[in-house]
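Q: What residues go here?
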């Protein structure tokens, strides 16, 4: 699915409230051609969730979204990060939605205004 000559990508982030739903989404993305290196999942399985602001900044998640995701982690959510070429974005977001993922609030606003 990847063109190795193209290095630019979009970061798509989605919250899942069930670990198994996040796993199903990752599996589906892998089956349609996304590489393991294009997908990450972050969550806290037990205990209090740490502040992950530094991690989010290091992978390119905007500050407003990082605050939202930190709040979600406190409630037990799992975050899936997908690096996609612009033409892959609709495919990735559809897979996320089909598996119960919620796109970030700012991403949803962007879709509504387009």
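A:
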């Amino acid at each position: 699915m990847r063109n190795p000559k193209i290095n630019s990508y979009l970061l798509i982030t989605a919250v899942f409230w069930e670990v198994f739903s996040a796993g199903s989404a990752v599996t589906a993305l892998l089956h349609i051609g996304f590489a393991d290196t294009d997908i990450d999942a972050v969550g806290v399985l037990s205990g209090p969730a740490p502040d992950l602001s530094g991690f989010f900044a290091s992978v390119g998640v905007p500050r407003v979204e990082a605050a939202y995701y930190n709040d979600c982690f406190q409630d037990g959510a799992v975050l899936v990060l997908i690096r996609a070429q612009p033409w892959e974005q609709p495919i990735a977001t559809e897979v996320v939605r089909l598996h119960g993922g919620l796109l970030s609030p700012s991403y949803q606003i962007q879709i509504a205004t387009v």
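A: Context that may help when evaluating the design: Residues 19-31 form the longest helix (13 residues). The beta strands are 10-16, 39-43, 78-84, 102-103.
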